[in-house]
Amino acid sequence: MKPEWELWAQEAKAEFPKANSALLPLLHRIQSQEHYLSEDTIRDVAVLLKLPVPYVESVASFYSLYYKNPVGKRIIHVCMGLSCALNGSDELMHHLEGKLGIQEGQTTPDGEVSLLEAECLAACNLAPVAQVNLRFVGPVTEDTADQLLTGEVKS
């Protein structure tokens, strides 16, 4: 456990006195430093907030923006919701997998890009839509998809 985490837990509890209310802000702050939440991190947070480990684990697993494994510097989420699926999100995912040489849920060996599925990004008017480091891009064509990989596309 890193020493600053104890301070961060105290700050979170001061703002949100109930431990389960302090959980999300603390997880977010730690992940912003560590880039993901390891099993050890989950246990440490449970100790800091005096919460059961399975509870902290379930919360961290429920939210798609908490990462249980290391992720790349650029995180691409491809929406797989109904509107996006009807407009080619499966083909978009396969295209990106081929270009990156990885499967959905993986990170390139150089640690640059992670490719993840999103259930619904609530941007149906942009279908098929993706997010790059939480910035919306859409509709995504094959050309736009290639630009996602180089960082050239603007959201």
CATH architecture of the largest domain: 3-Layer(aba) Sandwich
Percent of residues in beta strands?
Answer: 5-15%
Q: How many β-strands, per DSSP? A: 4
Largest sheet: 4 strands, mixed
| Sheet/helix structural class | alpha+beta
Can you write the helix and strand succession as a string?
HHHHEHHEEEH
Catalogue the unreliable spans. Answer: none
Number of helices: 7
What name does the CATH topology of the largest domain carry?
A: Glutaredoxin
| CATH level 1 class label of the largest domain | Alpha Beta
CATH superfamily of the largest domain: Glutaredoxin
Terminal CA distance:
37 Å
Oligomer status: single chain
Percentage of residues in helical conformation: 40-55%
Count up the domains: 2
| Spatial ordering of strands, largest sheet | 2-1-3-4
- Rg over CA atoms: 18 Å
